[in-house]
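seq as requested:
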Amino acid sequence: LHLGLNGFNGKPGQLANTMNPPTLLSTDFDLNTMNSVYVSLGTERSLNLIRGSKSAWRLGYGIAVDWYNFKFDHSRVIQKSADGQTIFQPIISNGAEVSLKKNKLAVSYLTIPLMSQLVFRKTSPIQMISFGGYASYRLTSWSKTVEEKSGDKNKESSNFNLNQIRYGLRAEFAIRRFVDLFFNYDLSPMFESNTGLKMNGFSFGVKLL
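struct tokens:
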């Protein structure tokens, strides 16, 4: 079980258009960082490649389901427009923008990691240093909003022009008498190239099991 926070690297420029409200602002990918939670649940195995008296080199592999939860720090909702573009728009009621208590984009992936692991003996302060990568297939994605005043909830499933395939780099560190740490960085952009959104996802946190 990997549990931590996730975010975006990169930010789109504000699009110049005559629409009001505009379809995309430079602030649309601003997140409530502490509530943007990453979760991964899976199984892992390792294969000894070289074994010594004080350390070993292993190949780690497995399969997992990952969830990105991007909680936006505003009330503009991600959508896929009629012409197929990824946009953000507010909810309008009685001529006014509705304030949202929750506004998030969630994406789930089936992921296969492949790691090079340097493992040390149990008395060592550093138990393991691991570097490698992962490849993922998007399973589903959806937006979820909760209105501030009414509490009305809305969930919309869409691909939002997200790339179907995701891949990136991972590092893990196991420290004696401390929780294991991990960091993931997506080398692949989250959105398709025709959207102009050059955003890469990342996550970091602790490995609990």
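The chain is about 0% helix and 60% strand.
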